[in-house]
Amino acid sequence: MSEPLVIIGNGMAAMRLVEELSARALGRYAIAVIGEEPRLAYNRVLLSSVLAREIGSNEIELKAATWWRERGVTLLYGHGATAIDPAIRRVRLANGATLPFTKLVLATGSRPIRLNVPGMDLPGVMTFRDLGDVAAIEAAAAGGARAVVIGGGLLGLEAAYGLAKAGARVSVVHLMERLMERQLDARAALMLKQAVEARGIAVHLNAETVAIRGRGRAEAVVLKDGQELAADLVIVAAGIRANADLARSADLTIDRGIVVDDHLRTSRPDIHAIGECAEHRGVCYGLVEPAYEQARVLAAHLAGEDAAYQGSVLATNLKVSGVNVFSAGDFLGSPGTEQIVFSDAGLATYKKLVIAEGRLTGAVLFGDTADGLWYLDLIRSGASIEAFRDDIVFGRALAERIQLPDRLHAEYVPVRRTTASAGPGVATTQIRELEDGLRQAC
Ligand SMILES: Cc1cc2nc3c(=O)[nH]c(=O)nc-3n(C[C@H](O)[C@H](O)[C@H](O)COP(=O)(O)OP(=O)(O)OC[C@H]3O[C@@H](n4cnc5c(N)ncnc54)[C@H](O)[C@@H]3O)c2cc1C
Questions:
Q1: 19 CA distance to ligand 1 centroid (A)?
Q2: 107-140 residue pLDDT tens
Q3: Does the beta carbon of 191 sit less than 6 angstroms from any atom of ligand 1?
Q4: How far is the CA of 438 from the centre of ligand 1 (A)?
Q5: How far is CA 19 from the centre of its chain?
Q6: Are residues 198 and 291 in the same domain?
Q7: Which pLDDT belongs to residue 377?
Q8: Measured from the CB, is residue 291 less than 6 Å from ligand 1?
Q9: Angle at Cα 69 formed by Cα 66 and Cα 74, nearest 5°?
Q10: Pocket lining: 9 vs ligand 1, CB cutoff 6 Å
Q11: Ligand 1 contact, 275 CB (< 6 A)
Q12: Contact assessment for residue 9 and residue 66, using Cβ atoms and an 8 Å cutoff
């Protein structure tokens, strides 16, 4: 017999959790997934490619409806959860139905930050987070519209590229002195700016937005220096905030996100959080790989295995066709580290590798990023690079001739397996209640 496990959010973390659970503990839980987006879970990372018309929106579904059915998962999409009552272990849905749980997982992702400036609520001011946003942006960008993207990070640049490809006249407004400052050093950021400008996108750095001006809808973005950039649409890509609304209703501990321990447990042991809504050791991750690692560890934990999540090494790839950028780990180089730099202006290639105590700790690549994942592997494994240090900047092909030690390919996430426990007692009544709740919700 199974016990009721409710997952709130049908995004990337939720899908991976179900996948991992079905491989480890199928049958142990009766799983219900509640998602407010009116569709099956999809690959959010590919939204930029959808906007750029490189793939269709129907091609990014993560799993077909049959996949969920075959695993006995009840999917309620198009249904938002509105509250959690931890005392009676029930989740309330927007339509008034309630679902019981013995275990609850919050996988509610993030919400885009809207700037606190006048005009943010004007029609024509949009965000870039889901398929609904993509449809709205596409409709507004048709016919050579003027678009201003606020934010020169990964998301802002991908939005700008997609808009430019769709025929819009695009400007990017960025508060900082360089693009993607959280992933790139000054040199790579300058090369990126040149590559973006070469695609017809204007870039304004050190540019603070103080208002969106318009009568009835957005007409211009007003900068602190007095400049006004005419706009038919404005995309705000100025960062994300963990979506912790529901956790608040359950009185869970929240800081920047829903605070979790190494077992992805919130301040209530029967409620877990994974993905972008979670804060682990003070960090809220905004990328999919940590969400997947957390899903794997949580599935192992829920299956009774001895598993702990210890944080993730971040790596970023920009998805702008023809502009290859990769960054991972300590890309700036903290005090006491050494750097190997390779640069070829003719090939528009730049590589910086950061080394500490004979190990690779960070990398920034512009142009030729083919070895990015290999460098990431080295950073994650913490293996010594001394044997091939002289050649490392030239990439894997050369270094492999010098015989890499096997441990470089070791898996990073430290999931330690022990014999699975028999699991908690049967929860027949709660299963029945879960089924009743689901019937009511449908
Ligand atoms: C345009 C774009 C490009 C990106 N590119 C990259 C990239 O190149 N590399 C990378 O690593 N990451 C990228 N990301 C980030 C990546 O998509 C996220 O890290 C990942 O989706 C996080 O998964 P998640 O499950 O935590 O959140 P999400 O995938 O956002 O899923 C959360 C889901 O929960 C639902 N939800 C929220 N509240 C409720 C509620 N109360 N009731 C029911 N459902 C609810 C939401 O509607 C949403 O569907 C990108 C993101 C965007 C938007």
A1: 17
A2: 999 999 999 999 999 999 999 999 999 999 999 9
A3: no
A4: 24
A5: 18
A6: no
A7: 94
A8: yes
A9: 135
A10: yes
A11: yes
A12: no
Q: Which atom of ligand 1 is nearest to the CA of 245?
A: 41
Q: Are residues 252 and 224 in the same domain?
A: no
Distance 48 CA to ligand 1 centre (A): 13
Going through 231-319 in order, the beta strands assigned E by DSSP cover 233-236, 240-242, 258-260, 271-273, 278-280, 315-317
Question: pLDDT tens across 266-321, in order?
Answer: 999 999 999 999 999 999 999 999 999 999 999 999 999 999 999 998 898 888 88
Whether residue 319 has its Cβ less than 6 Å from ligand 1: yes
Global pTM reads 0.88
Ligand 1 pocket test: pick from 108, 111, 127, 131 the residue with the most ligand atoms within 8 Å of its Cβ.
108
Contact 236, 129 (CB under 8 A): no
Gap between the Cα atoms of 185 and 251, Å rounded: 40
Domains in the chain, number: 3
pLDDT at 442 over 80: no
Same domain, 101 and 149: no
337-380 residue pLDDT tens:
999 999 988 888 999 999 999 999 999 999 999 999 999 999 99
The answer, yes or no, to whether any atom of ligand 1 lies below 6 A from the CB of 129, is yes
Q: Does residue 37 have its Cβ closer than 6 Å to ligand 1? A: yes
- Give the distance (Å) from ligand 1 centre to CA of residue 109: 5
Q: Whose CA is nearest to atom 2 of ligand 1?
A: 45
Tell me what pLDDT residue 412 has: 31
pLDDT in tens, 142-159: 878 999 999 999 999 999
pLDDT tens sequence across 387-434: 999 899 998 888 776 554 544 443 333 222 222 232 333 344 555 565
Measured distance CA(254)–CA(11) in Å, rounded: 21
Alpha carbons within 13 angstroms on the beta-carbon side of residue 368 total 16
Q: Domain for residue 349, yes or no? A: yes
Q: Of all atoms in ligand 1, which is nearest to the CA of residue 82? A: 41
Helix 12-24 vs helix 288-302: crossing angle, to nearest 10 = 30
Question: What does the block give as tokens for 380?
Answer: 């994650």
CATH number at residue 352: 3.30.390.30
pLDDT of residue 441: 60
Domain of residue 76 covers 3-111+241-312
